[in-house]
Amino acid sequence: MLEQQQQLTENIIKKVALRFLRQYYKFRLRYEDQPVTASYDLEGVGGIIADGYYSFKKTDGRLFTATFEATGKESRNEVVFKPQLQILLWDGLAVASLITLALSTANYFLDLHLLDERTVLMRIAMLLLSLTISVFFFYLIAQNFRRYRYIYAVEQFKKYHANEQWIALADDVFESGNDKYFRELQYQCVQNGFGLLQVNQNLDTKILVTPSRQDIFLGKRKEVDFLPAKMAQKQLAEQKFGAKWALFSSWIPAFLKRDDSIFRFRKSFQTQIAVMLSCFFLIGFLFTKEMSLSGYRIVENSEFRQNIAHSQSNQVKEQPEVLGDSLLTDKSPNRRLDEFNQQVWIPRKKETSVTRTPALATTSPKQAPQKPVETTEIVVNQGTDKPIPYDCSRFFTFDTYKYIVAEGAYKTWSSAERRLALIRNSKIPSASLPKSCFFPGETGFTIYLGEIFNSPEEASNYIEELNNSPQTVVNNVRQLEIIKLRPPAGR
Fold this sequence. Notes:
Blueprint: H1 10-24, E1 37-43, E2 49-57, E3 63-71, E4 82-83, H2 85-110, H3 120-142, E5 149-150, H4 152-157, E6 164-170, H5 180-192, E7 195-199, E8 205-209, E9 227-228, H6 229-241, H7 270-292, H8 301-309, H9 337-343, E10 377-380, E11 388-391, E12 402-410, H10 413-425, E13 430-434, E14 445-453, H11 456-468, E15 481-485
Parallel strand pairs: 3-6, 6-7
Antiparallel strand pairs: 1-2, 1-9, 2-3, 4-5, 7-8, 10-11, 10-13, 12-14, 12-15, 13-14
């Protein structure tokens, strides 16, 4: 009978992840006399929770901090994205309001649809139709945008600054690597510079995504002081209610307490509401201007009769003779042409001379990323993609000797790079590493094929696979050299 595998709970993931951070940052430069801080379950302002915290002082005097969010199968909702239909709706209404305002402005200057008392309801119906159609098409276009895929762990990391942040999860959280939720989590980690760590049933760790060494948010995130969870809650209660009232915090109604749900970091929609109100105000202003330019006014029959009864025209005497169909001339007797012309109804028209300046959208072209020329990094080929550079310290975490199948040694990076490009075209996994990473005092670069193996037997078997492969372009396959690696002492 097979032994049942243990359940990877969140507490187990926390311990494994903190152990990993100790080993991962073991060779980072730091003050040896300064203590290293490592702890679980810390809390900061705003309901921010760090499942794990690791920090030390670097040689430049600044504090380095790394935090992680641990997730087991029972808490998988922390790393599974939730569609944000509410934000999608408000974004659609804001965009639709801008489109409707643009159409109303164009109609005002081009007289496409005249507005008066008879067409008010028609104009309102047209505006509602414009809003409805715009929201519908916005939904069709934007429903799959990543802006509307909320992941609690990712959004929480965005709320505070840390040098490196990790999401550690059990390998049974997602069914497979093709799970759409798993792919979305990986993508958002890469886009935001967060690390992704996976823990298997043997409590071994596997790096899926490494955190960015540079601050992608450009200083927009605030610093947060973390405290143990109970101490942070007590301090928050004292700040809100005073020391005397901290004991009575349990009597506070639920709607007045802070939000501890996983949705507490969702984006707000106050900006969208402000945009909508501004658009409606401008549309109403245009309506008022159009109504004031109307050439006539519709009134009820009773009001019309009342106006005629009180009109000054009743004081005018009737003409002594009947006018024929001939035109009036200046020589006609007893004809007051000027007075007659002044009584002719002339519709009021708005001015049509409008000066419009088209807005030119200027966008600055994206700067092409510069190719790394730093010789302290390992460059790895992955399939047909471009080489990916990694710092040497990424490979300093193993405790035993490792073995590589060396293809050759090269004195300069340019020659090693050309060789890597040739091997990449043949779809042979390869990498280039500076000799100084593992052999202090040596210069140049070594290109190795395949993976980093745990034993010489595995490396030899890989050489035989290359020898039997018809697609290999590596010359003298049988003369490939197996080199033993181990990080230098003190790294």
